[in-house]
Amino acid sequence: MSSAATQPRTRLTIERRLNRNAGWTFTMYLSATLIGLALSALLLWTSGADVAKAFSALLKGAFGSQKAWIGTLSKATPLILTGLATVVAFRAQVWSIGQEGQVYAGAMGAYLGCLVFAGLPVALYLSLIILSGIIGGALLGTIAAVLKDRFDVNEIISTVMMNYLIVFLLSYLIGGGPWTEISSTVVYQQTGPVPDASQLPQLLGSKKLHLGFLFAMASAVVCYVLLEKTPLGYEIRALGYNPVALAYRGTNIGRTIIMVMAISGAIAGLAGVSEIFGTSHRLRSDTLYGLGYTGIIIGMIGGLRPLGTVVAGIIFGGLASGALYMKLLAKVPSALVPAMEGILMLTFLCAGVAAHYRLVRVGDGDV
Amino acid sequence: MSELFSEAILISILASTVRIMTPILFAAIGELVTQRAGIWNMGVEGTMLTGAFTAYIVASSTGSVWLAVWAAMASGALMGLLTAFMTATMRVDHFISGLGINLLAGGLTLYWFRIYIKGRPQPTFDGFDSVAIPGLSAIPWLGEILFTQRLLTYLAFAMVPVIWFLLYRTRWGLELRCLGENPKALDIKGINIVRRQYLAVMIGSVMTGLGGGFLMLGFSDRFLADITAGRGWLAVVAIIAGNWMPRGVLAAVLVFALLESIATHVQVLSLNVPHQIFLALPYLASILLLMGLRRKTNQPVKLGIPYFR
Are A143 and A169 in contact (CB under 8 A)? Predict the structure, then answer.
């Protein structure tokens, strides 16, 4: 410390950690957040916006008042669900990005249920609608799992392709097909409004927050219990760590992958149900667009843990909600939010790697 | 039937097939190099989107399509640098880092696009004109289909034998393929693995950016969000379906482009089916292709697996 001359010359080097250190990990993720925010500020600055004004409008619009909080939680609802769907799949190292399509499938399944079960008592009607949405999402997830298990088709590619296919199917159904809103002369690419009886009840007397939020919270608890406390959860985590050992133990890997994708799809499907029957009250694609892709970011930033995903979902719900306020007040396009999400995802990925390393000081002779 | 397959329509379908092949072929044949080096770039879609966006900005603000082409390649290089940093330097899982890059590209292009067109009608530009090759373009049928295309289309097809030669007939190509099969052997020989991986990713990403640029300059006069619409992913599927061989990749790209070309001619063919069915065909075909594919004999053994010394 006193003088370099008396001590052997040393230099800093990076070495892989054998065990993780909570403090260091926290420091890395904190740096990732700060670097991500700094890069977003740079992005704002390059586009000539007033950085401080934009960020403060974003924050205020997200968490500044009770009304803002309600808007935030309402936006967070589908994102938490798609985030949880990501957690279940990615913990098993099944790299499904089918959440996007499963949201659509869930919404379409529920809309079908809403047509088929019309006239039943309200409680039963609502339950059947929600159930058909869950089944819709789960079915699409299962297809990808079967393709992977039986035909060795990479799940990333099959889920991406199905994301496109399902959008074309919806575009046909609501843009000229049987579900197109009739009464109007112009085709708006949407269905007519869903019946009042099928709408999810609102919470706290607000016009925005609905029963879907409680579903998201309940799903987080279910995911936690499933992953941490059940034999299936053990298999899911083991599939991620060491599939070979799991196979030797006698577990049917194919069946586990199908379970993972069905559960993941079901949760994503619930996001579609909640968005259509809780918020937009008609089936249209622009309200569903991007929920699945954002869910991937939220699940990753939440550390692939249910609690972390809820927190990340609320933060990103806040950004989505505050973006509208920012657009009005600071004249910044709300597309800043998806750009920020992409930036934060990459900085968090780097932090995840850096958490496994440490800086050490070694003498010249050691290397 | 006779009216359905009249000569003019058939020629038009095949000629536009060749044009539609161009962007996917650039990306697929370039990413073949990247994948042969063991890097599974899942960010092709985002890289292509970035190329298309950059080409739009440059073409619509300067009016020069060739400047736009260079800019698209430069933006591809930038995305390649990011991809290489994530996969070769940070050694993040290739799949996850690719997803991150796609999401980043989707967000950034949308943001800058909104900034660019704020408060004015969207600027347009004049794209490429077709260049008839003297002599060859006079051949009946073939002349119109193959030899009355845009310059970059000729380049894309020329790249197939060039990449084949590089991969299979040069020492550099042998070492690059070895990188995907047994990087340790190269490491022991004293070759800088990370530098080679960077180069392989850059080749793929620059060509993908170029493909994105052509998608913009050869087909349209205005940008839309998510204009690539899965073509980057189709390039990845073409590599798998083509069993990591240049001619196989070419064949797979041809299948996708033919399907898309038929979809764009549905109106002319006056078939009484929803047009969405035809739009969905390339994506459906890619799943079916991968399902029918049992043989993956040429898949690099270390594809997508980060190398630790």
Answer: no
